[in-house]
Design goal:
The structure holds two protein chains of two kinds. By secondary structure, chain A is mainly beta. Chain A contains no helices and eleven strands. Chain A is globular and about 45 Å long. Chain B contains no helices and eleven strands. The model of chain B has no long low-confidence stretch (mean pLDDT about 90). Chains A and B meet through β5 and β9 of A and β5, β9 and β10 of B.
């Protein structure tokens, strides 16, 4: 099935550094979602974006809905050890619903204290 | 946290045996989903339900069946398990599927190993 291109695949950073990751699609989406998955747990929603150009923050996390509607970005500022995990993007187009959610393969983040 | 529990959390079984995974929710959400997660494939939708006794196939439904006799329970059955069905299975729920929807709440996962 269709998948999003999520990059980078993995990151290893020092505590306190900022992190950027992104997702791109060949299709236009009207919804972008960012989830985080801790080891042994299910994904948890971080940020939902519903409008092109939208910039939304959740604490140290900031996500943007790309103006072309084909990409989205997630930034984490001043990383801490509990940021470790896998970050997934997911997108949905105008004709879709949750059954049509397209998922990226994830960005694995490791933080060195 | 959304009230979603999956059982069993871990199971090892042999090829050819039937397996049923249970998802139970206490949120009274209408929509329920079963996903599998595999390295290199991410999350893939197996089946979903949009109400009691209303279910439909997802992207990778072959070899799986589901049932939903009550709002709170969504069962995933592997009639005859194969090694290719070794995976981590996640149940998810959603309150709505409108234009502003997309907020899936996931369970903790069920790790299934088929020998």
């Amino acid at each position: 099935g269709q998948q999003l291109n999520q990059s980078p695949q993995s990151m290893f950073i020092q505590e306190g550094e900022d992190v950027s990751m992104n997702c791109t699609s060949s299709s236009i989406f009207n919804t972008w979602l960012w989830y985080k998955q801790d080891p042994g747990e299910g994904p948890v929603l971080l940020i939902a974006l519903y409008k092109a150009g939208e910039l939304t923050s959740n604490g140290r996390l900031t996500a943007q809905f790309g103006i072309t509607r084909k990409d989205s970005f997630l930034n984490i500022s001043a990383s801490i050890p509990s940021d470790v995990g896998i970050y997934f993007c997911a997108g949905r187009n105008n004709a879709g619903n949750n059954r049509k959610l397209i998922w990226g393969l994830g960005t694995s983040l490791a933080v060195n204290p | 946290d959304a009230g979603i529990t999956q059982s069993p959390r871990h199971k090892v079984t042999e090829t050819g045996t039937p397996v049923t995974l249970r998802c139970h929710q206490t949120e009274n959400h209408r929509y329920m989903y079963w996903y599998r997660q595999d390295p290199g494939h991410g999350l893939r939708l197996i089946h979903y339900s949009y109400g009691v006794k209303d279910t439909d196939k997802g992207e990778v439904s072959d070899g799986y069946s589901v049932s939903r006799s009550k709002t709170e329970d969504f069962l995933l059955t592997l009639e005859s398990a194969t090694s290719s069905q070794t995976s981590v299975y996640f149940c998810a729920i959603s309150e709505s599927e409108g234009a502003m929807a997309g907020e899936l709440f996931f369970g903790e996962g069920s790790r299934l190993t088929v020998l």
